Amino acid sequence: PVLTLFTNSIGVNILEKKEKEGIIFVIITIFIAGALPIIIKYGVGFINPLFFAAMSSLIAGIFLFSLAIIKGNWKVLFRKKYILSMLLIGFFGITLSNLFFFFGVSLTSAINSSILLVIEPLYSIFIGYLFLNEKITFKQIIFTFIIIMGTITVLYKVQLKFNWGDLMILCTPLCWQIAHFFSKKLMTIYKEITPPLIATARTLYGGIFLFILGIITGTNHFYQLRNIHILWILLLQGIIGFALHYSVWYEAIKRLNLSKATSLVSVYPAFSIILAWFILKEFPTLQQIGGFA
Q1: What angle do CA 119, 125, 128 make, to 5 degrees?
Q2: What distance in Å separates the CA atoms of residue 248 and residue 22, rounded to the nearest whole number?
Q3: What is the pLDDT of residues 119-150, one digit of tens each?
Q4: What is the pTM of this model?
Q5: Closest by alpha carbon to 276, among 48, 72, 35?
Q6: d(CA 16, CA 43)
Q7: Cα–Cα dist 145/3, whole Å
Q8: 3-state class of 131 per DSSP?
Q9: Is the pLDDT of residue 86 over 70?
Q10: How far is CA 122 from CA 19, 118, 127, 140, in A?
Q11: How far is CA 130 from CA 108, 118, 137, in A?
């Protein structure tokens, strides 16, 4: 009995340490995610949304792939048993989600975008419960319902009509959660699949899909890369907004339940609203403040 108690105590300490580390990574994610709608809203003012999404994703993917080459584990990205899941992570996590997000932000405000994204815990609860066998508490359900009410408050205008940009933003976190599902599953089953590798697959494969789409639609505006200002925005979004953001986030969900990590990170609109106020001069309306509250 003493040995069992000692073993259980060690197990609990390891779990507590793991959870604390996960929460630290979530806090870092909050600050990066809070800045994301502001950077993108600012950038799409003079950069084609598809070109912006493709180039910043490719910058992130190339940056992370270079790190994987240095570490010597880059071959994992191309193994047959992982390739389909990684392609799906790239497609949902970058290609489809960025099409919704970048074009959605161009049709609505940065404040609306950041607040509407907090519906993500609703998606994570269903995916975590149905597909990852995660335990969902009654408290999580209650507070998720409150988040939905806040989202509806932001969505409905005086005319009770939906803005297409708002609807596109709402589709974005669903794509993220589908990508997170495949990511969490890979990291749980295979120990050699690390958070940086998942982030690399997401940005590299997703960026390639967007780049091909840009060629097909004729929106790869390479001449804009001669503009130093635009180049700096793409580098900032690629390295900080995508590469660092996703690497830190996958470190978090490796240590925490997907639904719990998503619920914790959903407070980032507070940071977005402050940045939008000071950088974009977007003053929140009473409706937006009510929805956020």
Answers
A1: 135
A2: 9
A3: 777 888 888 777 777 777 788 778 777 777 77
A4: 0.77
A5: 35
A6: 41
A7: 44
A8: helix
A9: yes
A10: 21, 9, 9, 9
A11: 32, 20, 14
CB 220 within 8 A of CB 108: no
Cβ atoms within 10 Å of 287's Cβ, excluding its own: 15
For residue 39, pLDDT over 60 is answered with: yes
Over the stretch 196-208, which tens digit does the pLDDT of each residue have? 999 999 999 999 9
Please enumerate in sequence order all residues whose Cβ is within 8 A of that of 103, keeping only pairs 6 or more positions apart, or say none. 49, 50, 165, 168
State the DSSP string of 240-262: IIIIIHHHHHHHHHHHS-HHHHH
3-class SS letters over 155-188: HCCCCCCCCHHHHHHHHHHHHHHHHHHHHHHHHH
Q: Measure CA of the first residue to CA of the last residue in the chain; give whole Å.
A: 50
Which tokens hold the place of 2?
Answer: 């003493």
Give the residue from 7, 37, 29, 64 showing the smallest Cα distance to 239: 64
Contacts of 171 (CB under 8 A, 6+ apart): 97, 100, 104
Residue where the block lists tokens 């600050």: 31
Distance between CA 90 and CA 192 in Å, rounded?
A: 19
